[in-house]
Amino acid sequence: MWRSWAALRLFEKQSVCLVLGQRMVAIATVAGKRRRVRRKSVQEEQVRWWEEEKRADGVKWSTLEHKGPVFAPRYERVPRNVRFYYDGKPLELSEETEEAATFYAKMLNHDYCTKEVFNNNFFKDFRKSMTPREREIIKDFRKCGFQEMFNYFQAESEKRKAASKEEKLIKKNENEALMKEFGFCMIDGHKEKIGNFRLEPPGLFRGRGEHPKMGMIKRRIHASDVSINCGKDSKVPSPPPGSRWKEVRHDNTVTWLASWIENVQGQVKYIMLNPSSKLKGEKDHIKYETARRLDKVIDKIRATYRDEWKSKEMRVRQRAVALYFIDKLALRAGNEKDEDQADTVGCCSLRVEHVQLHKELNGKENVVVFDFPGKDSIRYYNEVEVEKRVFKNLELFMEHKKEGDDLFDRLNTQVLNEHLKELMEGLTAKVFRTYNASKTLQSQLDLLTDPSATVPEKLLAYNRANRAVAILCNHQRSVPKSHEKSMENLKEKIKAKREAIEKCESEYNVSICETMLPHAVCLIAITPMQSRDEKKGKQLDRLRDQLKKLELQETDRDENKTIALGTSKLNYLDPRISVAWCKKNDVPIEKIFNKTQRTKFLWAVHMADENYRF
DNA sequence: CGATACACTTAGCAGCGGAGGC
DNA sequence: GCCTCCGCTGCTAAGTGTATCG
Questions:
Q1: Which Pfam family, any one of them, does this sequence belong to (predicted)?
Q2: Coil, strand or helix: which one is A250?
């Protein structure tokens, strides 16, 4: 029934090996029948944490040992003939200044360099990095010439691409060696993959949207900036020769291995484990279990907030309307933000200019038009028909307010979350997003899956269900540069395939006619004739299959051009729903989860059978 | 009580490598 | 065998939410 169990098992093993960083040799015969997997060493498989007891509160691990982070490669000066120009003339720069100049030069063909804020911020920091003499000369950004440096880096990049196989292999091996040494840690006796074991290299800060700090220089991180977290009795990672860590601590109530403070925004950055790790997997599992608990009380919560639309207290009304938006539209909570960040909002931080009320719009009544920059400055635009009571409340909330005023002036995320905590243990605003996303996937799959369909058809159904979630969560992407072209190519291919089918059909008909010749003539030839027919018939079937697949691909790609499916798959959809769907519908899991996703969701593959329901 | 610090999840994008078409 | 293009992966910014501070 489940054809791919064997394949799935194999995948698990591969994933496990990947996680453990072991070498494995898989031998496959030509027929693919005798498949043996040999391990170099017998080591424990990945922790089956989902079969273990939960740990006492707050403590995240007992032992933790690692090698510390990998530092960014040190700066190498550009060749002497690659020069920075000022006012049309070459100008020799000190090492530090030159490095800063290369940050900008590398981005010369980027959109960022057309933005005034970016250029101003860069130039300000650029001047800070200069020697007094340089600062005396370089006073006007418009007189700076980065082109030669830019050309140099382009050429270097071309060179790298054109490198020989051997050179590339050497690079690859070096990388793997680094990964092997620094990419893993030992935690509670198990080897686990680290997520980001390299410190962020210096460069220019690339904020999203209209970020006031874009273009500022993100400085190089040294050992003296880095805090290390590891087990008390473990070997402390060694800093580069001649340097010391900022601090070494042994805090087992947190999950990070190293941290530093980034200079542009003053935020703490961390080195943490890969999503495949027990620590992350457990947390992920809990997240979905919380969302499932919400399912049990959601009717009551909805009834309550509808009731509260009528409350005497403005505070309660606002809370109830906000919660309705969060539930119905999957809006984010909307924490307050500082002035020195891009101006984006979520539910609680909506301002009056972000919503428009229409008694009637396009044949719908009581329409609220949302139009605001959300996370990552992605535009949220939605025309929503709402209950009359909500509409009336919004009119009330907006009374006597001007642009820039908060829509929900008696509400913030802390207040909202405190209220939610009363309704259900562990309930916060973001649980609604997880809940509605997973719930939507489940119901859409139920709706769209035809059990008798082919695998490609089922996959289209799955993608459409996934897409419904991505739309709900407003997971957008910019239309890929190559979209137009790739659609054309696909159409071309489809045309060609149709022609091939026509051709094949006519040939098939001819050969059918041939077999209808008088028996006597055919007797001797019957075997070859039949096989030729069979061959044609099979070819025709295959071509038709291919055509169908292409057509499905066309639909899928076009529907997907501005929608990103990955984010919801990775962060919002209970993977057990997908696993169960695959098992039930005989779709190989690798058709919907790539290798990374399978490693991250290994727990779900084990936990869910075909009857799992969210 | 509001501000700030901290920890951790969620997000889109760029660059790269390898599969698949010619 | 070469080239194109597409998906994967790494990167790091930008959110959420709780704890702690003053």
A1: Topo_C_assoc
A2: coil
Q: Is the dihedral of CA A223, A227, A228, A232 positive or negative?
A: positive
Place of tokens 């590891």: A230
Name the residues in A257-296 having a C-beta closer than 7 Å to nucleic acid strand C.
262, 265, 269
A521 and A569 belong to one structural domain: yes
Cα gap A216→A236, rounded to integer Å: 34
Identify the residue whose Cα has the smallest distance to the C1' of B7. Answer: A254
pLDDT at A510: 62
Amino acid at residue number A303: A
Instruction: Return the pLDDT at A268.
Output: 96
A562 and A529 housed in the same domain: yes
CATH number of the domain enclosing A301:
3.90.15.10
Q: Which nucleotide is closest to A431, CA to C1'?
A: C16
In this structure, are A174 and A305 located in the same domain?
no
Residue A503 pLDDT exceeds 90: no
Query: Is A516 inside a domain boundary?
Result: yes
The alpha carbon of residue A218 and the mean position of all alpha carbons in its chain are separated, in whole angstroms, by 24
Three-class SS state of A179: helix
Nearest Cα to Cα of residue A592 among A193, A6, A11:
A11
Indicate the pLDDT class of residue A432, thresholds 50, 70 and 90: very high
The two structure tokens encoding residue A598 = 């399978």
Examine the domain organization and report whether A443 and A590 are in the same domain: yes
Residue A572 annotated among the catalytic residues of the structure: yes
Asked whether residue A598 falls in the same domain as residue A455, the answer is: yes
- Find the range with the poorest average confidence among A199-208, A375-384, A452-461: A452-461
Residue A76 maps to a domain = no
User: Given pLDDT bands bounded at 50, 70 and 90, which one contains residue A376?
Assistant: very high
Same domain, A182 and A193: yes
Q: With 60 as the cut, is the pLDDT of residue A161 above it?
A: yes
CA distance A521 to A333: 81
Same domain, A262 and A303: no
pLDDT digits (tens, 9 = 90+) for A24-38: 333 333 333 333 333
- A78, part of any domain: no
Q: What is the pLDDT of residues A226-263, one digit of tens each?
A: 999 999 999 999 999 999 999 999 999 999 999 999 99
Residue A234 DSSP code: S
A8, pLDDT greater than 50: no
Q: What total number of domains does chain A contain?
A: 5
Split at pLDDT 50, 70, 90, the class of A508 is low
A235 touches strand B (CB under 7 A): no
A530 CB neighbours strand B below 7 A: no
Structural domain contains residue A77: no
- Rounded-to-5 percentages of helix, strand, coil across chain A: 50, 15, 35
The CA dihedral of A29, A33, A38, A42, to the nearest 10 degrees, is 180
- Spatial separation of the C-alpha atoms in residues A350 and A321, rounded to whole Å: 12
Do A262 and A285 have their domain in common? no
Q: Are A263 and A270 in contact (CB under 8 A)?
A: no
CATH of the domain at A103: 1.10.10.41
Is the minimum distance from the CB of A335 to strand B below 7 Å? no
Task: Please tell me whether residue A544 adopts helix, strand or coil conformation.
Answer: helix
* H or E, element range at A35: strand A35-39
